[in-house]
Amino acid sequence: MTSAADVDRLPETRAEVAVVGRSNVGKSSLLNALAGKRDLARVSSKPGRTQLLNVFAAGEGTTVVDLPGYGYAGTVSQATRGAWRQRMERYLLDREGLVLTLLLVDGEVGPTRLDLEMLGWLRGREVLFQIVATKHDKVKSSHRQKRKRELAERSGVDPGEVVWVSAEKGVGLDRLRAVVRDALNRA
Known about the structure:
Blueprint (H helix, E strand, L loop, with lengths): L1 E3 L10 E7 L5 H9 L17 E7 L2 E5 L11 H17 L3 E9 L6 H12 L4 E6 L9 H12 L7 E2 L8 H14 L1
Parallel strand pairs: 2-4, 2-5, 5-6, 6-7
Antiparallel strand pairs: 1-3, 3-4
């Protein structure tokens, strides 16, 4: 629909789901996979390409917003990264209609220190969230159950509460679509 530098410039919505995660966690790839469209969200091999609040229509007056990633962003200055963080925090605290935040964690390596900080921030401000572990296909099948337990334990949730997905292989997309649909329809 649009991209905006500030929450005040976003279109009105009946209900909205936000997508947050570390740079290079696969936010854009996952958005494309969820929508079933290859080029809906721009995918880049360089972290830090998402710099604005990118709004996508989800039907019936609802929206999904892709937020700038946190963490490594190549040659982007510390000041610019700070501005992204402020934009993201303001959005998460002030956005009317926000019903759920998808916190994407790299299933192969996470949660990282930055992921745990974001998780603590969301909990501390009582922002409703769903942990989504990306890159399911990158975790060896013989290690998946152990990895799922470890990721959930480090995140302080039950393993069944984490939605595991692979944008590349389509794993878990139906479950995640249902989570998003349910959140948007509850509003």
